[in-house]
Amino acid sequence: xxxxxxxxxxxxxxxxxxxxxxxxxxxxxxxxxxxxxxxxxxxxxxxxxxxxxxxxxxxxxxxxxxxxxxxxxxxxxxxxxxxxxxxxxxxxxxxxxxxxxxxxxxxxxxxxxxxxxxxxxxxxxxxxxxxxxxxxxxxxxxxxxxxxxxxxxxxxxxxxxxxxxxxxxxxxxxxxxxxxxxxxxxxxxxxxxxxx
Amino acid sequence: xxxxxxxxxxxxxxxxxxxxxxxxxxxxxxxxxxxxxxxxxxxxxxxxxxxxxxxxxxxxxxxxxxxxxxxxxxxxxxxxxxxxxxxxxxxxxxxxxxxxxxxxxxxxxxxxxxxxxxxxxxxxxxxxxxxxxxxxxxxxxxxxxxxxxxxxxxxxxxxxxxxxxxxxxxxxxxxxxxxxxxxxxxxxxxxxxxxxxxxxxxxxxxxxxxxxxxxxxxxxxxxxxxxxxxxxxxxxxxxxxxxxxxxxxxxxxxxxxxxxxxxxxx
Lengths: 196, 266
Description:
The complex is a heterodimer. Chain A is of the alpha/beta class. Chain A has helices at about 15-20, 35-40, 50-60, 65-70, 80, 185-195, and strands spanning about 5, 30, 40-45, 75, 85, 90-95, 100-105, 115-120, 120-125, 140-145, 145-150, 155-160, 160-170, 170-175. In chain A, a hairpin with a 3-residue loop joins strand 12 (about 155-160) and strand 13. The longest helix of chain A has 12 residues, at about 185-195. Chain A is globular, with a radius of gyration of 15 Å. By secondary structure, chain B is α/β, with parallel strands linked by helices. In chain B, a hairpin with a 2-residue loop joins strand 1 (about 5-15) and strand 2 (about 15-20). Classes of the chains: A alpha/beta, B alpha/beta.
């Protein structure tokens, strides 16, 4: 099985790559359209801001390519947000393969932004991506913007309200938390993705 | 609910984990990756590595061990010590660290915080603050605390620096209360609560943990997001699984993970 990591400039690419290696998969880091198109699985990691992330994909000429992929695609953290239609962060159009608009956490007393730390995943729908996930498993989050709960949400997390923690629409999937940094739970979910 | 984080801190010197009392007299505690794996298996929520001599010596973190840790560890970790530019930070982040923490270099040049936040996002940027109460009752910031011969008292008030750091783009504050560090008499709850009141980003308590009650009090009384400790974990005086179980029973939101598998099962 060939897995590629799309090099959109995120700083967590190394960590995701190591996590895949721990699962026995050597994923190539690439921004080459042909290599991405030919891969069995495509992962779009991302740490950073939406506007530079999209600018980078545009620069690399990968926007239409990413939209047209038919194999399983996984966006991680910012990578998940880039799958959506728009992001409030920098007010930017994203890939638009998941019908959602990314919003900033609304500041409220006691709610610190960024949402940083371990929080629970609440399963909303059955899906192969969630195989083996417990009722209240913990995952590690670091983000200031979030995808609202919607019918694309496989699992949600509560932080000043429910937001989408795991999403799926057609062949596109996303995890708002960092599976590469979510201990056994994260490793299981990454493994599930590799087995889709 | 977001869980409170238990964070072992590993002070790194010459590629090994060391621990001193009140920042002096360091003794070797063990090998970096070995200790990191032990804490991961025990249920640590995050790890912080401080290269304690990098900043005083004017050099940046040795990225080789950062990469070794990143390959092995599947929980988040932060690296501190001698990061004085976006280039230094990029090297550490690309080696696999999730966050970088700046302390002395940010005091030398506060603009560094803005630059790091702009380059990597606030979620990567931790500002570490070493703080000590002066005779006049005011908490003030200390610099170059990794080297006692160079440690400096600054005129900067801790609360002012916390505010400024947030405005400039700190995504998290680690407050090391030097007066309580290394003596295991508990976190400085008064100081932590004062900082909490003006801190809108995650706040991590550091310095003084000696008993499970100290963690409970930091969470319950100072409302910190995480509690950092070193010697009590390194020495085995407090076992993380027992601590976390007890804190959960005390009503804290704590990630008590599934029974840990044998090391190497990951």
